[in-house]
Amino acid sequence: MKQYRLPYFDYLFSELDKQNPSIEKSFGRHVHWGFWDDPENALCDDEDYARAAEQLTLELCQLAGIAEGERVLDVGCGFGGTLASLNERFSRLQLTGLNIDARQLARARRLVRALRGNAVQFCQGDACSLPFRDESLDRLLAVECVFHFPSRETFFREANRVLRPGGVLVLSDFVPTRLFLPINWLVTRDWFEKYNAFGRCKLEYTIEKYRRLAVQTGLRSVAERDITRQTLPTYRYFAQMLARHGTVGWLGRIAVSLIRLQRLFAGYGLANYYLLSFKKP
Question: Domain 7-279 belongs to what architecture?
Answer without folding.
Answer: 3-Layer(aba) Sandwich (3.40)
